[in-house]
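Notebook entry, structure prediction.
Reason for the run: the old model in the group folder had no record of what sequence produced it. Starting over properly, with the input documented here first.
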Amino acid sequence: MASQSTSTPDDFNIFYSLHFLSRPTRPPSSETVHLEHSKHSSEESNDETNQPYQGLTGLRNLGNTCYMNAVLQCLCSISPLVEYFLSGKYVTALHKENGEVATAFAYLMADMWLGEFECISPEVFRSVIGDLCPAFTKKTQQDAQEFLIYVLNELHEALKKSYKRRCSGNTSTSREDRGTVSETSIITQLFEGQLSYDLSCLACQTTTDKNEVFTVLSLPIPSESACSLQDCLECFFQQDTLTWNNQIHCSFCGTKQDAAVKANIGKAPKMVIFHLKRFDYQGSYKRKLGTNIYYPLSNLDLSPYIYPLFRKNPKYNLCAVVNHFGYLDGGHYTAFCKHTLTQNWYSFDDAQVSEIPQSSVQSAAAYLLFYSCKAFSVPTKTHKY
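New structure, fully documented this time:
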């Protein structure tokens, strides 16, 4: 995706520095964050490893930006991603022509993780994102899932590397016509999985397959009262029939035919993000599903949906949640994140950060679920900006 800005990362560094040189090291008392468990002395707070707000920094609401704050808190809880930026590895991969988002993200992750501030303003990051997508600078509520996908895509575009790969069979992907060229980045390494669709023509029984990459899986909700995440997964991965306008063109029959389709996970990502489809649109009619969905905090087993050859890490543990409270036309986003250092759960409600019991993580407001197949280590900073 081409950037609409002509500035370089060096120009951005100057802009970022000027913006933050004038900000106080602590926000006004009305925006302080209440962390009962973090009462350290001033001497301890000078030690980077003992910062009381390390990974527990609030984000100011800039006017209906709770959707952005909740997503950023969840991304900040993913240690491999944070360490990639804290270590400075992103600098060598950065494409200067569209590196503003990745550079702004790196500075923001450093401010959020290193514990120097109780609360910070994500104004610079929002401004950079808004230059590319003006909808995110409007003081209107946006969808957290759409914002997440946009950020992940921009980071991938800024940090991607191309390499040649072999093509096997007639398999096609959602990234059409790339030939032998593929792309990788920290985003694809952590978040990208692959769905494999088995398509069977119901006229001649010929079976073909189609692959499609994903970073977020959008799951249908099969009940209006209560269900489990496994129910949502079974609904997504069940066999379906393609008819009418959804017919496939069967190369053997030479015409469009009804087909049976079934999806499996061909490649499971290290981090799997589930989007619970709570917003239902049917023409002009729209509503929010308030279904209470039970989701496990540990040992989520995805093996029933993964091809046997690729069942290396089928069990996942929850590490973050984006919640949505309210209705379609008005609501509020918050985040629950598991802290790498303390292994405790915290609620992030814009500037307010508070520890919560594990029992509170199960929420009827859950909208995005972040699962990891590996335990996180504590991110460290090895690069000086």
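Summary: The two ends are 27 Å apart (CA to CA).
The old model has been moved to the deprecated folder.
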